[in-house]
Predict the 3D structure of the following.
Amino acid sequence: MGSRSSHAVIPDADSIRRETGFSQASLLRLHHRFRALDRNKKGYLSRMDLQQIGALAVNPLGDRIIESFFPDGSQQVDFPGFVRVLAHFRPVEDEDTETQDPKKPEPLNSRRNKLHYAFQLYDLDRDGKISRHEMLQVLRLMVGVEVTEEQLENIADRTVQEADEDGDGAVSFVEFTKSLEKMDVEQKMSIRILK
Amino acid sequence: MEGAELAGKILSTWLTLVLGFILLPSVFGVSLGISEIYMKILVKTLEWATIRIEKGTPKESILKNSASVGIIQRDESPMEKGLSGLRGRDFELSDVFYFSKKGFEAIVEDEVTQRFSSEELVSWNLLTRTNVNFQYISLRLTMVWVLGVIVRYCVLLPLRVTLAFIGISLLVIGTTLVGQLPDSSLKNWLSELVHLTCCRICVRSLSGTIHYHNKQYRPQKGGICVANHTSPIDVLILTTDGCYAMVGQVHGGLMGIIQRAMVKACPHVWFERSEMKDRHLVTKRLKEHIADKKKLPILIFPEGTCINNTSVMMFKKGSFEIGGTIHPVAIKYNPQFGDAFWNSSKYNMVSYLLRMMTSWAIVCDVWYMPAMTREEGEDAVQFANRVKSAIAIQGGLTELPWDGGLKRAKVKDTLKEEQQKNYSKMIVGNGSLS
């Protein structure tokens, strides 16, 4: 015997790397983490596995973040799906901006895709617009019971008004992007994995 | 029949050896030095194995021990800085960035999840169960491993099971006998003797090597002893060096028999399941116990659950509300010789004990610490945290504010509410809005 290497081979490692842009080392670490979260060794993660992360459960947006891993009503997320969502938070590196091949799909961690991820945290019904009602809901998640309904409505109204350009009472993705054009999105929505 | 005679002879020699070398010395608390020799051989073998592994592993495939080193670059700035604002600024669409980033940092790496699985070793200790990252090195190493398996399963395991069996039976019989005597100092002395002897036998059944530090601070009568919790063996380790009154639920089966027998010889505090829910009742009974200065110190594990011995989690305040003197004790196991952590969701008690008995040994350090009492103006929670810090520093463990109950239940909403409060203060400011 001796010892068996316990790095389970990651299926489709190459295609995942191409799609997400993670390095082999980062991918290994994330795979290690995926297996640690998958307590019952099912091979996929359920909502409960993610809810058991203490620091995530106390995050006011925790539930929304967990939902983003389960698009289209699915109940499980496998490793490629897990990494695909995490890829949004990969820091933007020089090699990403160099290869501006118009035929290739945009990398998952581009500024546009990062903004799109944030947009989707607001836009629950996926209709492409953040309505006043959806804005209120997110605000309520972040403040809990501390703020009155009236104050919250004022804030929501003001925010929608400021961002809304075509006057339809909702914030579309283009308007969202425009109102945040001065924001350093790349830095705020990035997590650097140490080698 | 010759075969039966031979078997009978072997059995009797075996038992005499066990009696002579292990049981009798336990009664007098004397050690014959056999375990020291065993430990020396073991340490030499493991050192040799480590050198072989280090020589053999190619450099690229060494994955750094990720249990304690962070894998992501953390931005630990408080909420105000992270939201790029001053106090009293208004809500921005980009505020979600901060929370989502924090959320993802938690998904990639969090402090708590890794505390409920066994500690990773830096170098392999020739046990299959700790074989996480190590690869085939050489034939010689494999041969040593095979030899190790034979020694552990065929020589050590039967010996240990015999000892454990003898230890527990002696405990039950001994305490029942002592319980028949009328209350007197003779009874107390005898009950101490029985407890200590049986605990020593049980510790030897696990090949336990325990170092006690600062024995002058050993918990006194009428006090409460508080320690970090890694496994049920903690109890065994502490009672080998002194007698304590245990606190706990009444169990059925073997544990129940042991509990009922023990309480005959000296007063422990066992609760029915229904009584445990009534906190006032529990506190009252414990207060009565420590008020009687002649009774043994109570042993409590405030974490409430087993943690993997790399950190100390939240101490529940209940034990610190009783009053009285608290004697903190830090227990740290050496994972090189055997992993003592009981992962109750993975292993039940019997398989856990079997794992313990087929490890090399259980090596641990126990530090007794000076007594602490609640100060003026300190509430139970602050006091609990103070004791927790002291234990963590002494044992070389990290401190975590999280509740050990997280491994079973969802986190309490109060922690989420704190974050929400902070955020509200920022965007609503002093109550005035544009």
